[in-house]
Amino acid sequence: MANRIEMLKHGIRATIRYEIARSLNLGRGAAFLVLALFPPAITAIICRLPGAPPTMIPIGVTSLVVCVLANLVWSTSAVSGELEGKTWAYLAARPGGRIASMIGKYIVSVGWTALVTLSALTISIAVQALLVPTGDELRLWLIFASCGLIACFAYASIYTLLGTIFHRRAMVAAVVHTGVFELMIGWIPGIIQYATVRGPLVHLAVIGLVDKEVLEDPNFTLVFGEPNVIGHLISVVCLTIVALLASLWLIRTREYATTQEV
What is the pLDDT of residue 241? Predict the structure, then answer.
């Protein structure tokens, strides 16, 4: 048992080193820069508009969009990348190889998406502080950074699961899921929002941003429900853990064709 755990840990470390080295290329670097600079560009444009409208919501929304797009790039190819690279047979033959590969890829995808999301958020708030300072930039960064990190783990788990189930069309499945669950169902008030990542995260961000008097307003409760921080956190954490465990179970038990079926 101890040997298996040690082999699994070694496989995870090897996968992390390999995936990081493979990610350090011109294409991934260009994608990183584009994603990281998109929210700051939007923030700068808004700050230059007449009357300088508030940038709080655009910064939060664009940073979340960056998190989703980065996960689409890094988290959907846990299985398809190995199948396309014709390395799946080697992983399947090694004890714990499939599990180690998926966990390592998950850690790297979370790391990259967290880095690009926090970079985009930090630069955006720095642009706001430079052009239209409010004195509340630190609190804004702490709230959005916390929600962004949670989103990185959650979306990486969900997109990894979708990539495990729909390995031939992982990106398409992830886009459809995002459109249906995060954009449509996520707007429906009620307990169904707990089946999404966006719903609880929006509630957490709003609870952190508004004043206590607003939280106690009946109109606020009517729109957003009770300000239950623990409940929203538990829902996202449970969704993340369930999706990741389901991915690990599937990759361990499911057989994938390594050649094109005729």
Answer: 96
Residue 113 phi/psi, 5° resolution? -65, -35
Alpha carbon of residue 115 to chain centroid = 11
Mean pLDDT score of the chain: 84
pLDDT of residue 110: 95
Instruction: Look up residue 36 and give its amino acid.
Output: A
pLDDT score recorded for residue 245: 95
What is the tens place of the pLDDT at every residue in 173-210?
889 988 888 888 767 766 777 788 988 898 888 888 88
33 token code pair: 């820069």
Tell me the two tokens of residue 184. Answer: 């449509």
Asked if 72 and 159 touch (Cβ cutoff 8 Å), the reply is: yes
- Reported as half-sphere exposure (CB side, CA atoms, 13 A), residue 75 has a value of 32
Q: Specify the pTM.
A: 0.89
Per domain, the residue ranges of the chain are 2-253
Amino acid identity, position 68: V
What DSSP string runs through the chain? -HHHHHHHHHHHHHHHHHHHHHH-SHHHHHHHHHHHHHHHHHHHHHHTSTT----HHHHHHHHHHHHHHHHHHHSS-TTHHHHHTT-HHHHHHSTTHHHHHHHHHHHHHHHHHHHHHHHHHHHHHHHHHHHS--S-HHHHHHHHHHHHHHHHHHHHHHHHHHHHHSGGGHHHHHHHHIIIIIIIGGGS-SGGGGGSSHHHHHHHHHHHHS-HHHHT-HHHHHHH----HHHHHHHHHHHHHHHHHHHHHHHHH----SS---
How confident is the model over 197-248, as pLDDT tens digits? 988 898 888 888 887 777 767 776 666 667 788 988 999 999 999 999 999 9
